[in-house]
Design goal:
Strand content: 25-35%
Number of domains: 2
CATH architecture of the largest domain: 3-Layer(aba) Sandwich
Number of helices: 9
Distance between the termini: 31 Å
Strand order of the largest sheet: 1-6-5-9-8-7-11
CATH class of the largest domain: Alpha Beta
Oligomer: single chain
Length: 310
């Protein structure tokens, strides 16, 4: 468990001015009470590490103090910029959710940039929104809780579920998901499920996994036009929103080379806060589909959690 010490808490009543240290801050659903940057948006609370400030002062031969980089909370003990969107910081009743790493430099509108020609906040500062309010003060410890991505992989195959042949698509899909999130610095847990081509079993399993908080749910198999291919028929009615463009792109991209790819009827969409993708059962197709889906995942997660940072 990582604990991050709060060195200073800072407020500015007007935008474009430095924040000044104060004895404590109160946080509510809008951010820091009394701070100019509070409001109904994703950058309610800003944080910057003491390490970043000290390093900047040494390089720039300056004496920039706490709050002057416009951070609400000055911390010590962990490189904040290594965090990921949706990670959390917790102190007693206060829960902050990371929504953005770094920001666009304001250039001439930033007094630090004007004074020194550079600024560390756009590179190493982070922004959060308040999930649960409370009071924070210097000396408090923030517990860092990284978001663990929960992935559910469901393979549909009558013969594989009976042990007639080995399921290769499901394990491959799990490996691809683990590799993708690891390369993006995220922790991940993958659950594998092998079931027959059964409508009721699939529907119940999808409902159970989405209710349990799966972040992404993949199915593999059952997307063709055979008598037992029922995946799209089961999944599509369960979707709150369909993401049709992903599957359309994949079918066109690979269908121009391999016409059989055009027969796949896979769908993608959202159930609650779970991203859902139905892939073919062929391992080669699984790799092709996942490579395209992966390009959209991080942005999809931001949209799903109403983080308007694009």
């Amino acid at each position: 468990m990582e604990l991050i010490k709060i060195h200073s808490v800072n407020i500015s009543e007007q935008k474009g001015t430095v924040k000044k240290p104060c004895p404590s801050i109160e946080l509510n659903e809008l951010g820091v009470m009394g701070d100019a940057h509070a409001g109904k948006w994703h950058r309610q609370v800003s944080l910057l590490g003491k390490e970043s400030i000290d390093g900047y002062n040494q390089i720039a031969n300056s004496r920039i103090g706490y709050g002057e980089f416009a951070e609400n909370i000055t911390t010590e003990g962990f490189p904040l910029f290594e965090m990921k969107v949706l990670d959390r910081l917790v102190c007693r009743s206060t829960v902050l959710e990371v929504t953005q790493i770094g920001k666009k430099c304001h250039g001439a509108k930033c007094h630090i940039f004007v004074q020194t020609g550079d600024c560390v906040m756009p590179k190493e500062g982070i922004f959060c929104r308040v999930l649960s309010g409370g009071t924070l003060k210097p000396g408090d410890l923030l517990e860092y809780r990284p978001k663990i991505m929960k992935i559910a992989v469901i393979t549909l195959s009558d013969r594989a579920s009976e042990g007639i042949y080995e399921d290769k698509s499901g394990p491959l899909l799990g490996q691809l998901a683990e590799q993708f999130f690891a390369e993006n610095g995220r922790k991940v847990v993958v659950e594998q499920h092998l079931i027959p081509d059964d409508r009721e079993v699939l529907q119940n399993l999808i409902t159970a996994k989405t209710n349990a908080g799966a972040d992404l749910l993949f199915t593999t198999g059952g997307t063709g036009i055979g008598e037992r291919d029922i995946t799209p028929e089961v999944v599509k009615p369960l979707l709150d929103k369909e993401i049709s463009g992903i599957m359309e792109l994949i079918r066109v991209k690979y269908g121009t080379q391999f016409p059989n790819a055009l027969i796949s009827r896979g769908v993608a969409g959202v159930i609650g806060q779970t991203l859902v993708y139905t892939l073919p059962g062929n391992p080669k197709a699984v790799k092709e589909y996942f490579d395209e889906i992966a390009k959209t995942v991080e942005h999809s997660l931001r949209m799903l959690y109403s983080i308007d940072s694009h």
